[in-house]
Amino acid sequence: MTAVSSPSSPPESTAPARPAGREDGTFESVNPATGASLGRYAVADSAEVDDVVARARDGAVWWQSLGEPGRRTILRRWRAELVARSDELARLIHLENGKTMADAVIEVSIAIAHLDWAARHARTVLGKRRVNPGVLAPNHAATVEYLPFGVVGVIGPWNYPVHTPMGSISYALAAGNAVVFKPSEYTPGIGQWLVDSFAPLVEDRAVFVLVTGLGATGAALCRAGIDKLAFTGSARTGKLVMAACAEHLTPCLVECGGKDPMIVAADANLDLAVDQALWGAMSNGGQTCAGVERVYVEAAVYADFVERVAVRARQLRSGGAGAGAGAGGGGAHDHVPDYGPITMPGQLEVIARHIDAALADGGRAVVGGPNSVRPPYVDPVVLVDVPADSIAVTEETFGPTVVVSQVADLDEAVRRANSTTYGLGASVFSRRQGRQVADRLDAGMVSINSVLTYASIPGLPWGGSKDSGFGRIHGPDGLREFARSRAVTRERFPIPLKVTSFARGEKAIGQLRQLVRARWGHR
């Protein structure tokens, strides 16, 4: 069986280099900007994964015994711990993932907001509720309740190594499950930090525990008898995860990548649209599954939009860009970078290949170009006139590049936005037609006059369709994703009409026919 790994959305045709295990059964975490070693972690084999899951099974029993009030208290204490140590965590993200401190602070802040929301709303969302029994069972009381699965496995990505896995971890814990977390092999230290910060609050019980390793460790977790798995990564790897989980009929939640579109209408606020297009495309070095990769602009404002995007993009700096380097030249040596390095070295090859393909297919680079790729950094790249069938348009790039295309009208914009195998996020900019356009977009999440806003609103679900995966994290849907529903009926009193018995007579069936006709026979 092919090993399951946890990269975050590299294009399907690529097999980027990954950290390699050593003969001593460990692998190394390094700073992607400098290559400096940050630590060494164990490569857990299947027996070790099975042992961790078994311990988590015991932890789940204790965690569930606390009831919702007890779990809420501990999760709120954890929230306070994360707030108190947020700068420490942000610094670790900066070192191990490579993103800027500012981006790391944003990521930690959003993760804390989601943890708080899950803890506060678990009772309301998952509490037992009464259901109307209807006309066929009027003598019964009916309720539905939501029970924890037991042990939930989480395989996390490297691009948002706190926010993304915490979107599953927080909600799974709030729903009453124990969690076994396998972080990306690029960010094991961050995973270890999260687990260690929680452990004292439960007196080191195995409620939230860690397994580290490479692809085979992720595969072992899928097969370890867990009760549900939440995975974030590429569609290619997501299919392998599903196949591994299918061996034990383990349900899974799969959140994969995207090739997310932005639509700019002729009546849009162009300054806002330009600002948000660049943020959506370039922040975190473009390593965002729901980042902006394609922009469709109505003809009336296309030239103006491209000119403004180019001016602004030339001012952005990747980490390490000094005077005269990168897309725009200029800038002081001590200039704080707008985004950091590409975390996964093999992704640099993907980005370069997409830029080369766009130009070879007849496109133009109005900002940057092939020379923008200077490992481990990539300077901003803005491409125009790229054919719709170029891989720069059809495959996920996962870098600080964006393709801007002119469209005749919003109908064409919607058609081209939807012409992809992905269905994760989308955005539309318009003063008067934003909602109408948003309603036509084939995406799990849409922002109007902003990008990625749905990620920071804990009450909204996160997830997509098609090659972007299935299932939801965040919000009420996210809590219910980590609970199994159970229906319960209770007879309150007997009634004469009883058809679910061999003691019934023909009269009872006749009465049933009359009841059905009276209740539902009208048009």
Automatic annotation (TrEMBL):
<protein>
    <submittedName>
        <fullName>Aldehyde dehydrogenase family protein</fullName>
    </submittedName>
</protein>
<feature type="active site">
    <location>
        <position position="255"/>
    </location>
</feature>
<feature type="compositionally biased region" description="Low complexity">
    <location>
        <begin position="1"/>
        <end position="19"/>
    </location>
</feature>
<feature type="domain" description="Aldehyde dehydrogenase">
    <location>
        <begin position="24"/>
        <end position="488"/>
    </location>
</feature>
<feature type="region of interest" description="Disordered">
    <location>
        <begin position="1"/>
        <end position="32"/>
    </location>
</feature>
<dbReference type="InterPro" id="IPR016161">
    <property type="entry name" value="Ald_DH/histidinol_DH"/>
</dbReference>
<dbReference type="InterPro" id="IPR029510">
    <property type="entry name" value="Ald_DH_CS_GLU"/>
</dbReference>
<comment type="similarity">
    <text>Belongs to the aldehyde dehydrogenase family.</text>
</comment>
<dbReference type="InterPro" id="IPR016163">
    <property type="entry name" value="Ald_DH_C"/>
</dbReference>
<keyword id="KW-0560">Oxidoreductase</keyword>
<dbReference type="InterPro" id="IPR016162">
    <property type="entry name" value="Ald_DH_N"/>
</dbReference>
<dbReference type="InterPro" id="IPR015590">
    <property type="entry name" value="Aldehyde_DH_dom"/>
</dbReference>
<dbReference type="Pfam" id="PF00171">
    <property type="entry name" value="Aldedh"/>
</dbReference>
